[in-house]
Amino acid sequence: MTSAPLPRILRRRGEPEYPTFLELFFDLVYIFMLSRLATSLAENLTVRGAAQTAVLLLAAWWVWVLTAWLTDLFDPRLPIIQATVLLVMLGTLLMAIATPHAFGRYGWLFVAAYFGIRLVRDAVLIPGTRVNRPIQARSIRVFFWFGVTVTPWVAGVFVDETARLVLWSLAVAVDLGSARIGWPTPRLGRTELASQIFTGLHLSERHRAIFIVALGELILSTGRGLAGSGFTAGEVTTCAVAFVSAVLLFQLYFQRIRRILAPPGVATVERVRSGTSTSYTHLVMVAGVVVVSTGTSLVITRPFGRTSVELMVAILGGPVLFLLGSVLFDAVVTARILWSRVLAIAVLAIVLLGALAAPSMIPLPPLTVLVVANLVLLLTLVGEGLAARREPVEATAPAR
Question: CB 3.0-4.6 Å disulfide test: which of 34, 108, 150, 238 passes with 217?
Fold first, then answer.
């Protein structure tokens, strides 16, 4: 029995697995995207504003994930793939432009860019893989679910803000959720979650790159806040503390990554289930950095005085989201729980609940709350560093 020929656009095993310069160039647009999301949340720091920001972040993240998978499965050195990535980058830029008013007058632009990206991608991949039906079926399944979610996305453009939030929440949940079950499609079945598709080293590097981009947005918002301030003692101190936040998040991320993804532990190929899981856990970490950026930008403008409930949640909730994402990532890769970070989450939650339960008894100014959050992160980092000295490096393959 002869096997079907491999499509010309497919990446061959054994080819260079590190991200290309084009992929890193593509990531630059996400500095702008994440900045727009953080700014939008800061301007509407409410439950509704948080929900709207979450929906837009999920949509933007899904575009990034599909592009990372695109350059992982297909040869990023081919002109057709490079042109596709650049068009996706342009569409992402339009999505970012529409983001602050996506639930207002620019909802149509956000949806048009989002689905323009999907159409460009599928218009290249489906014809380009026609010589191999099993490989082509993967792209057709994704396209089928694109057709499923187009209705709520488009319908949301023509309704009011509340209905739009409900419809878009449903649509983005289906977009991300369908990947977790292998995009089941009539007559084509689904992509088996145990099948080995992705290149472990390449996806790992892509995830590290997007986390660095998120930290870059945090540095950008900190510098922009200081540049627009009056350089008072409080504003300068807040910016210094915000910079320390970025350093701590960087160290907490890469200190653990270096230990659990040492070279012997990077799988040659990545299964669908673990590949999607690592992408989703990085989504939680990046969301945490966006919330940290939101909180610090607000603290820079008003470092003293009483901290509002919303600002308290933003300042402490950002580190909680980051730590939660790192715990989930560790569980996916090592099948173990990183209890030091679970403890840090509990401490931050206790501080938050205590401050909310008795705000008059604990009148913490915003800058103090930011320092407390950094202290928890610092103690976690130091504790893990001391523990690491007593243990060998964990060369751990991704969990089954």
Answer: 34
d(CA 305, CA 314): 16
Residues 6+ apart with CB under 8 A from 361: none
* Greatest pairwise CA separation for the chain in angstroms: 77
Please tell me the distance from the alpha carbon of residue 352 to that of residue 347, in angstroms, as a whole number.
9
Which DSSP category does 10 fall into? Answer: B
157, 166 Cβ separation under 8 angstroms: no
Residue scoring higher pLDDT (400 or 140): 140
The string of pLDDT tens digits covering residues 185-214 is: 888 887 765 555 666 677 888 889 999 999
Q: Give backbone dihedrals phi and psi of 74, rounded to 5 degrees, phi first.
A: -120, 155
| Structural contact between residues 242 and 299, judged by C-beta atoms closer than 8 angstroms | yes
pTM of the model: 0.89
Beta-carbon-side half-sphere exposure of residue 281 (alpha carbons within 13 Å):
21
pLDDT tens column, 127-160:
888 777 777 888 888 889 988 999 999 999 999 9
Alpha carbons 296 and 71: distance in angstroms, whole number = 34
Q: Coil, strand or helix: which one is 185?
A: strand
